[in-house]
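Why Endonuclease/exonuclease/phosphatase domain-containing protein? Reviewers of the renewal asked for a concrete example.
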Amino acid sequence: MSLNNLLVSNVKRKLHRRDSSESSSGSPVEKRLKEFLSDTPSDAIDDEFEGDEVFQALEMSETLAKKMEEISRKLNKLEVIEEKMRKLDSIEQKMENFSSKLGEMENSVRALRRELNSSKVAQAELDKTVKDLKESVDFGHGRIDQVELKAFKHDSALKEAKEALEKKYLYLEAYSRRENLKFAGIPESEGESQEDTRRTLVEFLSNQLGFHHPEEIEFQRIHRIGKKGDRPRMIIARFLRYADRERVMKNAFKLKETDFKIFEDLPKELLSLRKKWILYSYKKPTVRKKLKTIGSVSGKAQLQGSDYILGNVYAPNKIKEQCNFFVELQQKLDDFITIQDQRIIIGGDFNVIMDQNLDCAGGLPKEKESVKFLNDICLNYDLIDIWKL
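Here is what the prediction returned.
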């Protein structure tokens, strides 16, 4: 076989392999070469081509096919790239929309920040106004407390002065009546005159009290008091000498089993005080009666031969009411103390802190103005807090 025939046969085999692997593909050169080889006999090919020319054409066709394949792959890649570019364009459009919405949100946030800043400024101004108002109110309360305290002290002074005048007046009135005595249960005759009343009283002194010469007792005035009724009116007699009055009063015990009574001529206010405060019980070492006042219970007793004043108090919480309470408590103690050696025991809830270091733990305790009044009571009556003994 000649070299040309060998080359041609090789070309045919290659073209045949290409046809089997790529039936629908191939370059135009390959197609023309294929058509040429199929239509032209081998001898004609030998005459037509020289071995070198056919080999060169074949190599060129293969190189061209590779380049065409490379171009095709690149074109495919370009299509993929174009598709991705379209997707990127869509994404870019979405990003632009998002960026636009984000810009709107940023504008809204900036507007909200401006409003928040203005609100903070307004809140700061409002807080300052509230603080100023609170300081003004606190200052006003302080001034009011001072005014109330001054008013309370003034009222206390006026009350003390009034009570002192009332006591003085009561003392003078009682002193002016010290020579008087009242006689109850003595029969009264129809149309009785003052002279008849005098004779009736003298007979009473002789018959009931055992005076031997009652006519020697001198009276400034004798008369009956009260309105006439079914029972005889009371006789009031003013003795000329206080000694005679005392003699009659000392013999009043002789009337114990009778219907006759002898009383001291005391003012109504003093009688009321006596009924309210006299709570002595010397037969038993207990308090037989109790005195109930606003916020306190007090009484007198004799224990083991010693006189005691017992008090149970519950003080209010407000300072002004506490001050009034302690002033009233001191007045009550003044009325109770009748002899020098009486002892005082007071218990209960005073609602005050006497010593901030000893009587409390924690917190911010403040000394109340009412403590001064309680300290005055302790100093005046030599009272001691047993908790500190």
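Residues 51-176 form the longest helix (126 residues). This is the kind of structural detail the renewal will allow us to pursue systematically.
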